[in-house]
Amino acid sequence: MKNRNLIFLNGLFFLVCVLVLNGCKKDDPDDKKQDPTTVIDVDGNVYQVKRICDKLWMLENLKTTRYNDSTVIPSGLNNADWGSTTNGAYSVYNDLPENNTTYGKLYNWYAANNTLLAPKGWHVATEAEWQELIACQGGTGAAGGNLKSTSTQWLTPNTGATNSSTFNVLPAGYRAISGNYDLIGEAAYFWGSNERNTTQGEYVLLRNESAAAAFNGATKQFGYVVRCIQD
User: Fold this and answer.
1) Which helix (H) or strand (E) holds 147?
2) Among residues 76, 28, 213, which one has the least CA distance to residue 133?
3) Which of 84, 134, 196, 228 could form an S-S bond across to 122 if both were Cys, CB 3.0 to 4.6 Å?
4) What is the pTM of this model?
């Protein structure tokens, strides 16, 4: 009888241990961790986000008017000041609020290079991160089609556009060093946060007449849109 009781108690102890361990495993926060679906910038703008090619990307262009320490980013620069500033600044295409709503802000490279531009815990994508995304989406010859929105904001022909990545690239155009705006509806220029040389930053370009994606450098005073990645 004593042996039977001992066997029973040992079995009961084992069962309790299993239940406790399983209970701990179920409560493990790592098992419940999921990617966020949105991120909010310091201005309160809400952006949809998604993991694409193993990185968590914003699915919209940045719109903030402030760095994440609440410092105001200069804006409203006239053409001469826009073309000569070496400080971070932004513009809205043709100063039209609806363009800000649809396409986001056009930042110069000095703003894109500032580590405080993105929401806390995020950063402006580097050229290397853009290259990884492009490679994952079919390479420079085809990735543009997978990344471009099929929206009518793109002028025809929106060659190859499928938006299979759900990255939703829209043709935001740019602001040139002259201060003039151009190519809305036809092209999307994204800054990489790193520089090409002392006078140029890196960018990636998608066009309406091509499914390709191209990399190049531009003078740091140009105004391009930016996308952010979680740190």
Assistant:
1) helix 143-147
2) 213
3) 228
4) 0.86
